[in-house]
Structures are given as structure tokens and as C-alpha cells.
Amino acid sequence: MVKSVAVFEYVVGGGFSNTQLETSLVVEGYAMLRSLLQDLKRSGYWVATTLDERLASTFKLQADKQVTVSREEDPMEKLEALLGLVEGVIVIAPAFKDALYKVTRFLEKRGSLVLGSNSNAVLTSSDKRLTLIALQKLQLHTPKTKIATMEEDVDQVRLKVEEIGYPVVFKPADGVGCIGASIVKNYSQIGSALSLVRKHTKTKHFLIQEFLDGTHISVSLLSNGEKAVPLTLNMQKVKVRPPPLGLSFEGNIVPFRHRLAEKAKNAARVAVESIEGLRGYVGVDLVLTREHPYIIEINPRLTTSYLGLRKILNLELGDVLVQTSLGLYVPKKIKCKGVAVVTKTSFPFSSKLFQKDFSSLDKNIEIVVSPLLPEFSVQRKGFMLFTAYGKSLKEVKTLIKNFKQNIHGMFTGSG
């Protein structure tokens, strides 16, 4: 029985120790890491983790063992030092630059028990091109797609766009969230869309997909490697813009009701069960049109929906994640005891916002704010991610409205 676990969250855990941190990813990564560590501790696990030195003075984690990763240090060496102390490892990492695959493979080579998907499943799921091929074999609904290479010029790409028809979406094959993706409505936007996608990928190809007019959702699942169980359908708040701004993720509602909910859950389940080696927590992104759920991508790792799920499910989610990853347990009776809304918002970088005390705000709101790092001030904006939860969506919306009114002065710099 596994009772000691290391959690390695790539973004805040030192994966960017040799480069600049991305403030948007930092708040998401820290929120997931903090929440999972708390859940595992509550279920009696001994937990260890790593943390980027630049964040150590600001971000506090509930861990029995915490190793700091300094600039120029190899985060994998730091992670390796923890392996002798634990029985299993949970990895949270983006697909970008094969981060999740590389860490998973690193652990497998050292004989560590990965409490999640194996490296082969991660490789297939992290490359949207490979995922698409796997899904098409199952005859699941997917967007019309053309694969283009980074060497193709604007006119070569235009021919592929015209085969699909405007508007289309350009996205990196190894993208994380919405980063690098944008909607292209006409020929004049192709050049800047190419520049955006090239900036945020390491692969030699990218995807051109039809733009689906519908509701962006995700399905959260747990899999024991053979059987996948959908937990909830979640609405994703995605701002769709042309380049250079592109698409951006702004949060989600957990759970979300929709007439195509069961079809979407079933499609997600079939997709996850079809890829050998997907195990533990898996998120599947879809778009619900009037007719069908269209699968967009598979995330073989913890996603931000977890922040809401842990508040509203009748499960000790950290423990269930471990047991499911071990193939010992798949939850059968899943009940939601309320609604959670996860919201990510940006603000002009200001020390006034960070220095505010949020402890007096509603106890049903959990908050993560960008730390005060010089490199974040260069990015000219910070991010706040908060999770609000209550008995109903109406109640949660009221909480959020009051919360935003309370911090309005912080966003304007007058607080």
C-alpha cells in the first residue's frame, strides 16, 4: 500500500529554473500543487515536493519534505533525490516541449512508480497530431484538421486553410492550454498566427482546425488503465481572439449541465479507454455544437478543474487518485454537493494587489496571486486565480460579484 508520495509540478517545481517563469502558468501550477498536497496530507500520506527558489519566500506548501531548486540547478537531480523517500510520484506538467513526457520517462528509467499515465500514453496525448490520429480511428467527432509544417510560408498555409474554410484555429501540436493558439478569420491574419504558433512550440508541425461554434467544455475522468469513469462535465471559459493576442483560458464551472452531457462523457470515456497506458486523472477537452460533442484534446495529467472538483465531490480526491493510478479502485457512486467556479484574471502588475490581506474575504473562496518577481514586472501584468464554491451556481456568482467589488480598488491601483 502506497503511503508516501512525491508530487512534482513542473512550472513551480523548478522546471523553469534556467529560464523566465510565465506568470499565467505559475498561478495555475501553484494552485494545483498546493491543493493536491493538502488533499494527500488529509488522507494520511507522507508527501514531498520541489519548489523553484524564486517562489520559496512567497508560496507556502503543506509538505513533509520540500526541496528548493535554485537557478541553473537541474530539477531532475533534485527530484531524483526524493525518489528514495517515497513509494510513488505524481507528475503535473505541460505538454509544451515534451515536459510531461520527459519527466515521466525519467522516472520510469529509474524504476519509480508513476502514479499516472505511462510515457507512451503521455507521448500520444501530448502531441495533438497523434491524439487526432488515435481519435479518428475510433470514429469519434473531431474538428476538420490540416497538418502544416513550420517551414511552410504564408501562401502554402493559405491553401490548407482554404481547404477547410475560414474561420480556422491555428494551434501548436504540443501546446499547453490556449497558449500559442489563435483564430484566423482571413488571409491577412495568417502571418501573425504563424508567428504566434512558432513562438510557443518545439515541434516541426502545427494544426489548422475548423473553428467550431459551440460551448467549450472538459470532462474530468479517473482511469485505472482499463476502465475510465467520468467525474464531471465542466464548462471552460475561453476568450477567442485573433493574433497576436490569441486564445486565453479564463476559468471553468464545475459541474456544468448540458443536454449533450452524457454524449460528451461517453465520448471522453471511449477516448481515454482507447489509449493504452492512460491512468489516474485525465482531462478531455471538447466543444459542444448543436449536434455533437467534438473532442479537441486529451490532457494526461491534473488540470485546473481539479481545483473545483475537490470542493464539490463526495470523494477524498487525492487518495482516490492514488488508488485509481494503482489500479486498485475506480469510484462508482459519484455525487456533486455543490458548484465551484474557477476564475483566472489578469491585472496591471502592482505591489498593492499582492500586499493585500485576503484572509477577511469569504471562506468559500481560495485565492492565488502572482508573486512579486522582477521578471513578472517585465511581463507587465500579474494573474489572480480564485476558486469559489457553494450550494448553487447562483450562490457562487453572488460570492464572485462581492469578491470583485471588494478588490476593485486593487485592480485599479487605488486600494
Structure description:
The chain has helices spanning 11-15, 23-42, 75-80, 99-109, 119-126, 128-137, 154-164, 190-199, 261-274, 305-312, 317-325, 351-354, 374-378, 393-406, 408-412, and strands at residues 4-9, 46-52, 65-69, 88-92, 145-149, 168-172, 182-184, 205-210, 215-223, 228-239, 248-254, 280-288, 293-299, 339-348, 365-369, 381-390. It has an eight-stranded antiparallel beta sheet with strand order 13-12-9-10-11-14-16-15. The chain has a four-stranded parallel beta sheet with strand order 3-2-1-4, sandwiched between helices. The protein has four domains: 4-92, Rossmann fold (3-Layer(aba) Sandwich), CATH 3.40.50; 129-210, Dna Ligase, domain 1, CATH 3.30.1490.20; 213-325, ATP-grasp fold, B domain (D-amino Acid Aminotransferase, Chain A, domain 1, 2-Layer Sandwich), CATH 3.30.470; 341-412. The mean pLDDT is 92. The chain is α+β, with helices and mostly antiparallel strands.
- Considering DSSP H and I runs of 4 or more, what fraction of the residues is helical? 25-40%
Weakly predicted, low-confidence segments = none
CATH topology of the largest domain: D-amino Acid Aminotransferase, Chain A, domain 1
C-alpha Rg, in Å? 21 Å
- What's the end-to-end separation, in Å? 51 Å
